[in-house]
Specification:
Elements lengths: L2 H6 L1 H8 L5 H8 L7 E5 L5 H9 L2 E6 L2 H11 L4 E2 L11 E6 L8 H14 E12 L4 E4 L2 E4 L3 H11 L2 E10 L9 E9 L1
Parallel strand pairs: 1-2, 1-4, 2-3, 4-5
Antiparallel strand pairs: 5-9, 6-7, 8-9
Amino acid sequence: MSVKFYNENAVDFFENTVDADMGETYKIFNSYLKKGDTILDLGCGSGRDSHYFSNYGYEVISADYSDEMVKMAGDYLNKEVIKLDMRQMDFKQKFDGIWACASILHIKKDEMAKVLEKSHKALKDGGIMYMSFKYGEGEVQRGGRHFSNYTEDTFSKLLDSLDIFSVEKFWKTADVRPDRGDEFWLNVIVKKK
């Protein structure tokens, strides 16, 4: 996990991400849900997405594994953010949607199935989950963080091996931060079987 990085770099990370424009991705996610639905912002970071989703009309539970990000997001959102290791998550049929934007990518590949299974349990029947990963292959350590990279093919193989989600949509995007235009992301929405 990369929790040490986020505890030590919380202020910089907050400032660099809180204003990132996720509008197009929000639109896609919203098309699968309705106002009033309950969603889990899993690895909420700055709280940017929780802020948007709360204003949109969802009931939002915000969670992060970094103590510093929990504090900063809680202050930003003016509400409690729970400290949660997604590998230990224990919700049962609680959420209509899970939003895991640039968070689940820090889970090592040999633990990814466990997190997906726990996410599946946390979703209500027919619930959806959004995830994003750096586009590519393998696992890398960069700047004190672990990244598990996927393509449509490698992530589909993982999902096929579990047989608990169906893929609703894959799409590839450039990084929305101005200084990261040469980085690409794999976005995926899956539905609980």
